[in-house]
Design goal:
heterotrimer; A mainly alpha (116); B alpha/beta (419); C mainly alpha (311); A: mainly alpha; flat; C: 311 residues; membrane (chain C); NADH dehydrogenase activity (chain C); NAD (chain C); NADH dehydrogenase (chain C); NADH_UbQ_OxRdtase_su1/FPO (chain C)
């Protein structure tokens, strides 16, 4: 689509701008990059690499979010058809949302939204 | 060169400052904080963000090694200032006034850049082995590991790996499967049941920097997940001086923690903080800063300075009450602190309120009892209080509990394992 | 149509970033109790930028440099592209028929970008910051989507210029206040700004950005403010009537309204402490989400009453 042309130009302009800033900094900087610094935890060295599996305690929120997100995909085109299809579309969509919301309330009562 | 010089000169008037307080120099720390804030210089969040490193007080040799490590990570242009514990405000001012000129010097900048970039060739000042430059090859060893797990892993390793170091790359070397049981034993947590995930990581060469990959252990919900052993060290923003928290972290929850103070025997010397409202304002400022509210935190610090400088009570009373009222009335802060630390037998909100009450009492002219003062927690008890806390909650707990070194000469480590 | 707007937009966005930085510095000094003047705040912003340009870069041990760079650049490009659908005056650089969806898609790229920046340096505290941002995203994204869908619903179209046209009489912010408020909150959260800056907080030594130095930090902080400016800029056609208004030309109104929203967002940063997700999640899911759903229902009913026939 022709409409994406200007967006491609925008992306290109942005990347070129960033490259200019990086180039400027390479000219101006006082020295070559310092490599191999230990990560900062307060001064003492860590015992392991941090690239590990991080325990996200909010994984239940992720699942609820996913359910809702799939529904939002339907809501975007729905906004276009409401004036055309009338009441039935609104009723169906909000019934669907109510079902999902009850899932959220259930998750809340189960304590999934509170992870500390 | 001209561009560098111009930019350096322009930038030198807004440096970011990292303060490293040494235990026992609290008064000087407050003075330096005030001097930095009054020049509108921002405080850095870490060494990557730092231009000026200010060591406040005379560090012992453990602390010196840590500071050398941190200094190694500061990028150029950089400047290090060591302040004598007996420095007077005029000295502090004079040293800080020299900062822009020193930072603006391009030759100095180039030299610092080169010394920062070629840091791997330097040898470490080993201290008492707690601080090692992890860039070095594994040969130089991980003595902090050895210190924490004295006997367990060594005897097994001696047989298998001969000249290889017991930790780090060894498990991921040629001796694949035997690596599993060693990991389990040296971590001292749980047995590996079933398949070990580290089987994927077996390569013939050692891991970079000699650091290991994360081990696996059960967390508070019973899931077997990666474990990181981190020393949350003394050089963190808004952190008690000299405190090191060796935490066992899974995700961002602390499974267990041990607290200690570096250079413990020296740290028992009396802190020249000044008691009473100065300390209350200091604790309140620290809690607010950790809670992410820099405006009132800075306001509390400036009021603390005015009181410390001897401003009469009538002059600051109005602002003190205004600050206390604003912090009390903040519903957002209340939401953030609700139930914080409940499983750790601590109520952060209550501690904050008590400090605020004391501040209001001072402003109102009522006498404040010394017994009324929320006593700082002894460092040796801090570790057990933090077990099971999330990292942000733990930071708030540490800020609110204001741990102090006990008066006895030994301020040793204790284990705080929890669930 | 090849107009100059694709080249004008980045310039305007950078000007917006400058505005944010200056205002933020001035408010920070004032909140601390040291009165400040505009000139000092202006020069401070320049000094901070110069400082980052001239500082030495650094990489950490066994860092994933490629991913970190990808994160920083993705943040900047996503922010600029997200603003690509904003009508500057009456004409946007790219007036997509699905402009609202495009905006949403681009700001979601920021999720991955910030996490990548947190992951790259192989530092435990950086990684914590990156994950904090993902947790934050889960909490604000749904109210955000409901808010922008409500605006699209009010106009019956996903095209930004149609939404602007539908506000010729009355702004959407007037009869969809809950959606507007939810949008402003989510704009702050998406740019991890202000009360939502736990991902780069001081309590984790700078968080996701903690190990960045030199031009990397400059690009990251610039990208973060770019995202804030883009979100504020999109609020104008969605809720504040775009270029509609008396006396001034359309582009001037867009400018004024964007700056007003930006000033509000910068001010909010200094009013509130940081909102941690382990406390805010409940509020967001139990209060904000049903509120935006009710708002959407109300707007749907209005749309039906206004003239949706159908069966």
């Amino acid at each position: 689509m022709g409409a994406f042309g200007p967006l491609a130009i925008l992306a290109g302009v942005t990347l070129i701008g960033s490259a200019i800033i990086v180039g400027l900094s390479r000219l101006a900087t006082v020295g070559p990059p310092a490599d191999g610094c230990l990560p900062h935890l307060g001064g003492l060295p860590p015992a392991e690499h941090a690239l590990s599996r991080f325990h996200v305690r909010w994984y239940t929120v992720t699942m609820v979010f996913l359910a809702f997100d799939m529904e939002m995909i339907f809501m975007y085109p729905w906004t276009l058809v409401v004036p055309v299809m009338g009441t039935s579309s609104v009723v169906e969509m909000f019934l669907f949302l109510a079902i999902l919301l009850s899932g959220v309330v259930y998750a809340w009562r189960e304590g999934a939204l509170r992870w500390t | 060169m001209d561009l560098t010089r111009a930019l350096l000169r322009y930038a030198a008037h807004a440096p970011h400052v990292l303060l490293v307080p040494v235990p026992g120099a609290a008064g000087l720390r407050m003075e330096v904080e005030h001097a930095v804030a009054s020049r509108r210089w921002r405080e850095a969040t870490g060494p990557a963000d730092t231009d000026v490193l200010i060591v406040v007080g005379r560090p012992g040799h453990e602390m010196r090694a840590v500071i050398a490590e941190v200094w190694r990570r500061v990028p150029a242009p950089r400047l290090r200032i060591d302040l004598d514990p007996h420095a007077r405000p005029a000295d502090v001012s004079r040293r800080l006034d020299q900062v822009p000129d020193l930072l603006a010097d391009p030759q100095r900048g180039h030299r610092e850049a080169e010394s920062a970039a070629t840091r791997h060739e330097e040898t470490t000042a080993a201290g008492d082995g707690n601080v090692e430059d992890g860039d070095h090859n594994a040969r130089s060893g991980h003595s902090e590991h050895q210190a924490e797990d004295p006997g367990a892993g060594h005897t097994e390793h001696a047989g298998h790996h001969g000249h290889e170091q017991p930790h780090g790359p060894a498990e991921h070397g040629e001796h694949g499967d035997t690596g599993h049981t060693e990991l389990a034993e040296q971590a001292g947590h749980t047995e590996h049941t079933g398949h070990d995930h580290h089987a994927h990581h077996h390569v013939a060469m050692p891991l970079p920097g000699g650091l290991a990959m994360a081990d696996v252990a059960e967390d508070r919900d019973g899931l077997a997940l990666d474990v990181l052993n981190l020393p949350l060290g003394p050089v963190l923003p808004d952190w008690p001086a000299g405190l090191v928290l060796d935490v066992v972290l899974q995700g961002d929850v602390i499974s267990s923690a041990e607290a200690r103070v570096l250079d413990a025997p020296r740290a028992t010397r009396e802190d020249t903080a000044g008691g009473g409202v100065v300390r209350d304002l200091d604790v309140v400022a620290r809690v607010l800063s950790v809670a992410g509210w820099p405006g009132p935190a800075a306001r509390a610090r400036s009021l603390r300075e005015r009181v410390r400088a001897g401003a009469p009570r009538e002059e600051v009373a109005g602002e003190l009450t205004a600050l206390a009222r604003r912090v009390r009335r903040s519903r957002t802060l209340r939401l953030m602190l609700v139930g914080l630390g409940r499983t750790q037998r601590t109520d952060v909100a209550d501690l904050l309120r008590r400090h605020l009450s004391r501040i209001e009492a001072y402003a109102g002219g009522q006498p404040t009892e010394a017994s009324d003062e929320p006593a700082g927690l002894a460092v040796r008890d801090l570790g057990s209080r933090l077990a099971g806390a999330e990292l942000a909650a733990a930071r708030l707990l540490v800020a609110a509990l204001d741990p102090r070194v006990p008066d006895t000469a030994e301020a040793g480590r204790t284990e705080g394992v929890g669930r | 149509m090849t107009s100059a707007t694709p080249f004008l937009l980045p310039v305007l966005l950078v000007a917006g970033v400058w505005f944010v930085a200056v205002l933020d510095g001035a408010l920070a000094d004032r909140a601390a109790g040291y009165g400040s003047g505009a000139r000092r705040a202006l020069s401070r912003t320049g000094r901070e930028a110069a400082r980052l340009l001239v500082a030495q870069r650094r990489t950490t041990l066994a860092a994933d440099g490629l991913l970190r760079w990808a994160g920083v650049l993705a943040l900047i490009v996503a922010a600029v592209l997200a603003a690509g659908v904003v009508p500057l005056g009456w004409e946007a650089p790219a007036d997509l028929s699905v402009g609202v969806v495009w905006f949403n898609a681009m700001e979601v790229v920021a999720w991955a970008a910030v996490w990548l920046v947190g992951w790259g340096p192989n530092s435990a505290l950086s990684l914590t910051g990156g994950y904090r941002f993902v947790a934050q995203g889960l909490s604000y994204e749904l109210p955000h989507m409901f808010a922008i869908i409500t605006a699209a619903l009010g106009a019956g179209s996903l095209r930004m210029s149609d939404i602007v046209d539908a506000q010729a009489d009355v702004w959407f912010a007037v009869w969809m206040p809950a959606a507007f408020a939810a949008y402003l909150l989510s704009a702050t959260a998406m740019a991890f700004w202000g009360p939502f800056d736990a991902p780069v907080g001081r309590d984790v030594a700078g968080g996701a950005a903690g190990e960045l130095s030199g031009v990397d930090r400059l690009l990251f902080e610039g990208g973060r403010r770019l995202l804030l400016v883009a979100a504020a800029a999109v609020a104008v056609p969605l809720f504040l009537g775009g270029g509609h208004g008396p006396w001034l030309p359309a582009w001037a109104w867009v400018l004024v309204k964007t700056l007003a929203v930006l000033a509000l967002l910068v001010w909010v940063r200094h009013r509130l402490p940081v909102l941690r997700m382990d406390r805010w999640s409940e509020v967001s899911w139990i209060v904000l989400l049903p509120l935006t759903m009710l708002q959407a229902l109300a707007v749907a009913l209005v749309v039906l009453a206004r003239g949706g026939g159908g069966q």
